[in-house]
Amino acid sequence: MKNIKYIILVLIGLLATTSCKKYLTVNPKTQMTQDVLYSTQGGFKDALTGAYIQFKSNTLYGQNLTMTTAEQLISNWDVTANALDQKLGLFNFTDATVDAQMTSIYSQEYSVIASVNAILAQIDVNKSVFTTPGLYELIKGECMAMRAYCHFDLLRIWGPIPSAVPTGNIMPPYVTTLSNVANPLISYSQYQTLLLKDLTDAETLLKAVDPIQNYSILDLGRPGSTATSFNPTDTYFAYRYLRFNYYAVKALQARANLWFNKPADAYAAAKVVISAVNPDASLKFRLGAASDMTAKDYALTCEHIFGIYDFSLSTKYANLFGNGTLKKGTAATTVTSQLYGSTGTDIQVVSDNLSYAGFAASIGNAAQFSTSLGGKDPQRAFASQTTGVIYASFLLKVTDISGATVPRYSFGLSNATDPATASGNYTACLYIKSSTNGYQIGINRGTTDTDTQWASTEYVLGAVVLVVVSYDITNQISKLWINPASSSFGSTSEPESVASASAGNFPGTNSNTIASVFFRQTNTQNPVMTLDELRIGTSWADVTPKLTAVNNISQNNSLKLSTSILNNQVTVVGGSDISTVDFYSLDSKLAKSVNVSGNSIISVNDLSKGLYLVKLTSGNMTNTQKVVKD
Q1: Which of 50-64, 371-385, 433-447, 506-520 has the highest mean pLDDT?
Q2: Of 6, 166, 350, 440, whose CB neighbour count within 10 A is largest?
Q3: pLDDT for position 540
Q4: d(Cα 44, Cα 123) in Å, to the nearest integer?
Q5: Neighbours of 306 (CB within 10 A)
């Protein structure tokens, strides 16, 4: 017994003189030290899975950047007045709730990047722990791709537009290391270089090992099945369509290069994805077809290159879509005929150029109204005006009036500051009706058909007429001019109108604010017509520019500029010894004129961004060409 007591005392003494740290250090089950986590290839898998979980969080691609915030920024859903969704659609970035929403997205993007950088900081140091062939390349390639993806969206949301990049260090940090030291702002070119390098590195790593190149999407989703030869030793190589795979990297390369104005590189990357085939020579990523819709594959999974797995997606559907939180319109007729794409009867954009003697030359496309069935009523907001006179002008060609036996309005001004949420009150509405020898045009201060004041002249079908309307906000009078004399173009004062509608005589809606313009294609009684060259201004001169230079000329299509998208320089093609190249702005003012010899290169750095009409003259050859200065 005595010996036992001594033994116990000795043990107690030993314990008393031994540090307790070794015995009391316990890693919680939800935490793991870096050394332990990255001591096995399974630890690297777990770490990357954690990054994907952050990536698919509601703050990022599990909701905000796929279903809610990103869609609300472009007004894809109905909104609640003065709520966050409406403020996002109005780009009210100074609002505290909008700022908080955008800040959370910004922070979470960098949180994902930090998680990826933690993996990349250890993967080369601990490369020896990878025992499965190709797993090192697979995980590192996915990390590089995810880092590039997050940085690309940071660029798209918070960076400058590609056509207007300021100089200096104006970009958010491109973070490649895990550190508690603040990262400095960098230049646009540095950001571009780092992003494209990440994608190149990811491409190289994944191209060597990614089984998506050799197996179909179907086979990748059933590893070990008797129906496929795909039987990887590690199922981490399966389901590649739910991870950053090789083709996802190529698709992102295409997007990034296009953003950075590298169209040839973008095309080459996109071609790899488009041309990818399965072992049976079928396309790996094909466009959806009617048969997919019949099979109720409404997401068209055949087009999916990369996705993320979200086990709570069904719940999100119920909470966001099933209960009507996210919707666009409720009436069946609205949804089917106005909201989603062309129904075949919507106002169409067509390639057409109307012209009127002495009036500025047409640029771009035109709007065409279809038959008697209704479609979308497009509206466009502009800076609100609360005083003075608002003018609008356009060229009009009516080709079929047979269905318009009852007068209907097709154009007007509105007080709606946000047409996506409310159409507002209409004024200066243009009416058209059939007549004995063609059609007549009228003006209305509101939308009550019987209050329309008609111009007495009848116009023949197929002829182009110049229409000018105005609304005097102070005096609440709408006026109409049709084919005004060319001598009045550009004048500081308006000529006499052919019809007017005043507040004192007509019960139309008063409007003390004008903030948008609209086209309207009615459900019945609609003429078939084309509208071109819409202009809005605060003076008669603003909407009646003269044709100052480019007149009707003999066209020779062999004489032209080498491209219609101008950057820093452009080549004259098809010219003889001496060619003259004149650039005219939309208001027909000469912006640049240069004489060149043969097929010469012209610098266009001095041109402002926008649309131009170019007149080329070489000997007895002439040509006009529409171009865009980017």
Answers
A1: 50-64
A2: 440
A3: 95
A4: 8
A5: 18
Cα–Cα dist 480/443, whole Å: 6
Q: Which of 206, 197, 204 is nearest to 135 (CA)?
A: 206
* Cα gap 423→447, rounded to integer Å: 13
- pTM higher than the cut 0.85: no
- Determine the Cα–Cα distance for residues 32 and 413; give it in Å rounded to an integer: 65
Beta carbons within 10 angstroms of residue 156's beta carbon: 13
For residue 290, pLDDT over 60 is answered with: yes
Residue that has been written with the tokens 């015995």 in this structure: 23
Mean pLDDT, the chain, rounded, equals: 83
At 191 the pLDDT is 95
Domains and CATH numbers, the chain: 34-303 (1.25.40.390), 348-543 (2.60.120.200), 560-629 (2.60.40.3080)
Cα–Cα distance between 437 and 401 in angstroms, integer?
11
Q: What is the mean pLDDT of residues 479-499?
A: 93
Q: Inform me whether the pLDDT recorded for 303 exceeds 90.
A: yes
Mind listing the pLDDT tens digit for each residue in 215-237? 999 999 999 888 889 999 999 99
The pLDDT, as a whole number, for residue 507 is 52
Residue 45 class from Cβ within 10 Å (0-12 exposed, 13-18 middle, 19+ buried)? middle
d(CA 184, CA 188): 13
Question: What tokens does 175 get?
Answer: 């973070």
Query: Is the backbone of residue 201 left (phi > 0), alpha (psi -120 to 50) or beta?
Result: alpha
State phi, psi for 480 to the nearest 5 degrees. -135, 135
Exposed (0-12), middle (13-18) or buried (19+): which is 155, by Cβ within 10 Å?
buried
Let me know the angle formed at the C-alpha of 32 by 31 and 33, rounded to the nearest 5 degrees: 130
Structure-token pair, residue 538: 């605060």
15-24's contacts with Cβ under 8 Å and 24+ in sequence apart are: none
CA dihedral 458, 461, 463, 467 (to 10 degrees): 50
Backbone dihedral angles phi then psi of residue 350, each to the nearest 5 degrees: -125, 155
Buried b (16+ CB within 10 A) or exposed e, 529-541: bbbbbbbbbbbbb
Rounded to an integer, what distance in angstroms lies between the CA atom of residue 287 and that of residue 305?
11
Residue 118 has pLDDT above 70, yes or no: yes
What per-residue confidence (pLDDT) applies to 600? 78
Bridge-based pairing of strands 366-369 and 528-537 is antiparallel
- 435 Cβ neighbours under 8 A, 6+ residues apart: 458
Report how far residue 481's alpha carbon sits from residue 389's, in angstroms, rounded to the nearest whole number.
15
String of DSSP letters for 111-147: HHHHHHHHHHHHHTTTGGG--STTHHHHHHHHHHHHH
Q: Can you list the alpha helix ranges (DSSP code H) found in 215-286?
A: 217-220, 246-259, 263-274
Tokens standing for 217? Answer: 């999407």
Count of positions (residues) in the chain? 630
